[in-house]
Design brief:
four-stranded mixed beta sheet, 8 helices, about 190 residues, two-stranded antiparallel sheet, about 45% helix, alpha+beta
């Protein structure tokens, strides 16, 4: 029989936890059979409060840690994808004299804008915001809150602001003498909210 004298039994996990809760600066905690398991425990574990050690051994901690390990990379990849799509479909990346108009089919201001550009023989690219991905990503990239949105080169005009549109087209070197609208507006009411 291997009899162990009293006081020299090997320390169990429960004894180690009890010892971690006590003040480790006392000399009796560093001697005897309990010294070996305590020395094997990392320094940070010995100096954490008991509730933290209990939490770190819990299922909640494991689930939260693994969730973050999985979800954080997914969120980073998704954010990168969104930035790429916004950059790819951003209408401000066009040549200086190019005109792009973001419209919807039901918007009366959009119809008026398109009719005026058509009668003035100004070439433009029509992007329907509701029709597909290109329109949605362009709308998101411009941080628009309504339609029509006109992009001349890299300049953006939100709504049917006729004076601002004429000035921007003239700066781009486009002839606007034939550009006439049914109403001359530059107010905030010339935007149809989506």
């Amino acid at each position: 029989m291997n009899a162990v004298p009293p006081g020299n039994e090997p320390a169990s996990d429960r004894d180690v936890d009890r010892n971690l809760g006590r003040n480790l600066d006392r000399s009796e905690d560093r001697s005897g059979a309990a010294a070996a398991p305590l020395a094997a425990i990392p320094w940070i574990e010995r100096h954490l409060p008991t509730y933290v050690r209990t939490y770190r051994r819990s299922r909640v901690y494991r689930v939260a840690t693994w969730s973050m390990a999985v979800l954080l990379p997914v969120a980073i990849v998704l954010a990168g994808y969104i930035q790429y799509e916004k950059f790819h479909y951003d209408p401000r990346r066009q040549p200086a004299r190019a005109v792009t108009v973001l419209v919807t089919t039901a918007c009366p201001f959009c119809k008026e804008m398109e009719a005026a550009l058509h009668t003035a023989a100004i070439a433009y690219r029509r992007v329907d915001v509701e029709a597909g991905d290109e329109g949605r990503w362009a709308y998101t990239a411009l941080r628009a809150h309504g339609v029509p949105v006109t992009v001349v080169g890299s300049d953006v005009i939100y709504g049917l602001r006729t004076r601002e549109l004429r000035a921007t087209l003239e700066r781009a070197g486009i002839d606007v003498r034939a550009l006439h609208f049914e109403r001359e507006t530059d107010g905030a009411t010339s935007v149809v909210r989506r």
